[in-house]
Amino acid sequence: MGKAVKDQLGRVIERETAPQPAVILVRPQLGENIGAACRGMLNFGLTELRLVAPRDGWPNPAADAMAAGAVELIENAKLFETVDEAVADLSFVLAATARRRELEIPVVGTETIGAEMRAKIEQGVGVLFGPEKAGLTNADVVFADKILTYPVNPAFQSLNLAQAVNVFAFIWAQSQGVTVPDIFDDVRSEVAPREELTRLFDHLEDELDKAGFFFPAAKKHLMQQNIRAPLTRAQMSEQEVRTFRGIIKALAKGRGKARGG
Amino acid sequence: MGKAVKDQLGRVIERETAPQPAVILVRPQLGENIGAACRGMLNFGLTELRLVAPRDGWPNPAADAMAAGAVELIENAKLFETVDEAVADLSFVLAATARRRELEIPVVGTETIGAEMRAKIEQGVGVLFGPEKAGLTNADVVFADKILTYPVNPAFQSLNLAQAVNVFAFIWAQSQGVTVPDIFDDVRSEVAPREELTRLFDHLEDELDKAGFFFPAAKKHLMQQNIRAPLTRAQMSEQEVRTFRGIIKALAKGRGKARGG
Fold first, then answer.
1. What is the pTM of this model?
2. CATH number of the domain residue A13 falls in
3. Which of A171, A190, A255, B95 is the most exposed place for a label (fewest CB within 10 A)?
């Protein structure tokens, strides 16, 4: 995209060249839904689609067919094998889900999230949507800084994937004119890209594995969540991530020696 | 509908019995879109569907199939021959359209329309959506008090009918003033008392001291800040603090041995 377009008043704008949140479809099942999601995105000016392990492979003709005029999004979609990789360059990640989670991740509604995303957009923002049937797993959601919930009907919560994306795109578009509340204007350093945090987790969990920390093995997953959730919430700067890498190195250093001698 | 439902906190609410805007599909073409619109409506608590002269007649099996769990809306849909009749009992009518009109009808955006509809809801509110291909004619739009426009991408304005209805339903639900984050707030455990965090810092910094981490000594204060700030921001629960205490123990364990032997 990125070409100048005209808005309803005839003004030339470059809406699509501005940074915008990435829509990340995690293990989507139906190509039709991917295509419909693209339409809903482009209707409200979003163009950056990322796919994590789409069930039916990629490219997918069913997606092309449904995307209609938004086929350019399909062609430019980025393909990833894991959520981990898909969020690597982002600093603020949302997980769109209606299910309650036993996760220590703050939940945010739709009223303020547009403004919050705009305040953080230069550092890389993305939103995770789960597969049609099962939705996001907790292992997916722990990559998120916040859980985004829609004001859904409690008796009929399950949104179609494309409609969930459509509503997200609308929220983004609507927030364009909205002034960013002061509360998001903090003096914090830039948040480290997510891949640095992932490397920190890998480093820490690798050392913990060596130290026999993850016992019993059945609980490893839960223990990982207890490690990752607070460090993700902390929105660490690059300097802080470096400090924590240094901590792990310093603490783990002697142990190798102990084993060696 | 109209039966009591439970929200996430288990409170019995009667969301669906309260008056709500009627969604009026004018000469809709595809049954699939009618069904998908029903899903999008019910997801956000809307249940009143009106149909004006649907192209393929009514009832329509294609609509039933797409409505999935929202088939009750299909069954209760009211059928009309003209827009005139469909809006007869309403006092405030919107026409959802992205096209510019040479009509002396005020245009309203999405930011304030939810509140405006709620203010007028007791008197009867409805919104017109046009057929898939052609959209609403001027003859349809003149029945509206206001034209409702979405903040669409000027280069790709044409929303799918079901998605347009979906966004409208979302706008309605969001304007309800439901403070979603509050509802979910109890998911987060209580934040650990500060003294537990202090003990965690003491423990960590003591081990780091032993490991020779704080070097040069003049920088110790700054390094402490880089450790404490993110862990404080993380607002850790007691369980998470325990996990981090365990991490420090696990990583530091071998080092003592190394020194001893």
1. 0.77
2. 3.40.1280.10
3. A190
